[in-house]
Amino acid sequence: MMPATGAASLEDAYGVRNYDPLPVVITRGEGCWVEDADGNRYFDSLSAYSALNFGHRHPRLIEAARRQLDRLTLTSRAFRNGRLGEFCARLATACSMQRVLPMNTGAEAVETAIKAARKWGYRVKGLTPGRAKIVVCNGNFHGRTTTIVSFSDDPAARTDFDPFTPGFVSVPFGDSAALETALDGETAAFLFEPLQGEAGVIIPPDGYLREARELCTRANVLMVADEVQSGLGRTGRMLACDHEGVAPDLVLLGKALGGGILPVSAVVGSDEVLGLFRPGEHGSTFGGNPLACAVALEVLDLLADEPLSDNAIELGASFSDSLRAAAHPAVTEVRQRGLWIGVDIRAEAGTARSACEKLLAVGVLAKETHEQTIRFAPPLTTSADELDWLLERVNLVLAGL
Ligand code: PLP
Fold it and tell me: Is the entire prediction scored with pTM above 0.85?
């Protein structure tokens, strides 16, 4: 093998190729913008799958991290730290809930919720031991652990990774009648994304979240909303469930909760469910560390202080209006909620991947999901001028497909 040099070839030579990145090596970032080593600038309209909701290196988040770095970074939960209580109180209040269980990644929050729901099923609902069922949706994406891929229907996520964890039943997303049939006396929880992000920004029919809430209540089943990608302002509300005024029993947050600085996730819920955990039954060395708490507290302050959700609503509408008005022949559908946009392109116009390569060539970073969908999720801090800049290029590329 030739000696590898340069960031991309070193990564290819020594890293595991479990991603297929676009051919750009980013070395700096600020706000919506990133730069490669040659000083070329790009607009980051993926925002690390919404983990960068506040853009790159938001000054308030960097300052909060710096202040905490100078004092204390990690204690483990063997001891208390000075920031965890404050973080739990603030996040519980922001979600109008009672308790918070901090973890690190989104997948860990999902795993935590599965354990919490099963425990509640046995201890409170009185399910037959070993029989707790969790209903999920077709097309879901909740992470990559072995239990989570057990209820994925994406062959790439599953193939060669069996045997799978039992206890999950999948129903079509957005179909209340199917959900009603699936919720039975053995069901502990309904786990769902209020909008399916990785599936292509799929928005359920109006009223679905409210109906799901009613069905879960009637069947005495926990409603567990995975808001790891949809939460914290992305859709124009604190939570995507807020669009229908629905309060789930458990809410899962991640990605943007870490301010684009470090992984922070959490399960937020009622005392009846989360109060069941006893010492030793669940945990994480890094979960609830003081640095994570300090950054997440600043994230919550930013969301409270700045009209980022309003900006997401306004700019998101401009985004989809502009694409629809252009009526690009290559585009078959535009789906949008807040600053989250899925654009389907015709197979004859090429793949979404090739469209993303063309976007890269004009200074726009975006990412395909599945074969024919481009997904855009610009930072919530994007200005109207920056959006105009972005739209000019996106329209240029879509027109040329
Ligand atoms: N849940 C949802 C809805 C997600 O979109 C993702 C990641 O894209 C996850 C969970 C997993 O998060 P992580 O990659 O931090 O484990």
Answer: yes
